[in-house]
Amino acid sequence: MRTKNLLSLLLGSVLLFAAGCGNGTKAPAEESGGEESGNAPAQVKNVKVMLDWTANTNHTGLYAARDLGYYKEEGLNVEIVQPGAGGTDAMVASGQADFGISYQEGVTLARTQGVPLVSIAAVIQHNTSGFAAPVDRNIKKASDFEGKSYGGWGSPVEEAVMKSIMDIDGADVSKVKMINMGDADYFTAVKRDIDFAWIYYAWTGVEAELRGEPLDMIYVKDYSEALDYYTPVLVTNEDKIANDPELVKAFMSATAKGYEYAINQPEEAAALLSKAVPELDEELVLASQKWLSPKYQDDAARWGEQKAEVWNNYAEWMFERKLLDKPLESEQAFTNDFLPNTP
User: Fold this and answer.
1) What is the pLDDT of residues 11-62, one digit of tens each?
2) Among 11, 75, 14, which residue's Cα sits nearest to residue 47?
3) DSSP string, 128-186
């Protein structure tokens, strides 16, 4: 998973909803060989989960739930797939995928455009993304962006976030040179023509450590409470919640167990992910998992918990900067109702 590809989805999520929403079809049920009480045949439900990009440690809990049999215990046959051409949010909203990995900003944009996405869990409790630069660029705070070259992808969100944190430091975003990174990854781009870029530390930052290329990291959440939003999140659509809540409940019960496994056993979870997706760098997966595992739940009462103020704060921030056409009705954008062990 390259930072460019992941952040291009994160920052360009407004484009994901141009595809509109069609009528989805439910996956067919299969009869298993086992029997429930009363000698009735057990029904196994096929479920499709769509990732946001290539598999990485943000997704470990899904693979753990699948490969350790947690989904099977709930009567689910789960297929984990790469995003479709229309984007994960559009595929989930239209019912072409049952569940997916998205981001709070993507769901926020979707909801304000009439797309029926609903976030059902925060994969990571706090925002682990931010602006990163090799230490030799001497970028220690947002005001140091002035006179430097930023590698991005032209999303309005990028400049809005940069301006927001630079304003706090009394700096001028117009003094940053914006460069389109194209297909280059972070490590190629900073050696070629940029000074800093927006990354997820759990992947690109950890990879920099392994390469022996230390970074200065400016987390956006450290500048503004509004920028401590949920990224990524698990999503489904309103139809699934209304018409098959037991499926959503079963899926979340098993998924929570998968993430709890990744929280409590990072080394074993990393090995499981590497086995499931052998093309990933095994050393990076292990190091990333060790860094990320404590951050899935962090200070929340349980894994997946979402707070209304987090949704409201970020939506208000977006609306004030004209990134939304209208305010978000946050109570419809997320729910904690399907998390196990409800307080």
Assistant:
1) 444 333 333 333 333 333 333 333 343 443 368 999 999 999 899 999 999 9
2) 75
3) -EEEEEEGGG---SGGGGTT-EEEE---HHHHHHHHHHHHHTT--GGGSEEEE-TT--H
The alpha carbon of 157 is separated from its chain's Cα centroid by a whole number of angstroms, namely 16
Q: Choose among 167, 292, 299: nearest CA to 223.
A: 167
| Two structure tokens written together for 225 | 């409470």
Cα 107 from chain centre: 11
**In the numeric block, which tokens belong to residue 45?**
């439900």
Least confident window among 16-20, 134-138, 198-202: 16-20
Name the helix (H) or strand (E) containing 215.
Answer: strand 215-219
Beta bridge pairs of residue 100 = 50, 235
- Is the separation of the CB atoms in 17 and 89 below 8 Å? yes
DSSP 271-311: HHHHHHSTTS-HHHHHHHHHHHHHHHHTTSSSTB---HHHH
How many Cα neighbours within 13 Å face the side chain of 121? 30
Please tell me what DSSP assigns to residue 59: G
The span from the CA of 229 to the CA of 159, in Å, is 17
Helix, strand, coil shares of the chain as percentages rounded to 5?
50, 20, 35
| Residues 305, 139 contacting (CB under 8 angstroms) | no
- Ordered by where they begin, the domains of the chain are 3-125+229-332 (3.40.190.10), 129-227 (3.40.190.10)
Give the pLDDT score at 215: 97
**pLDDT number for residue 8:** 44
Q: Report the predicted TM-score, pTM, of the whole model to 2 decimal places.
A: 0.87
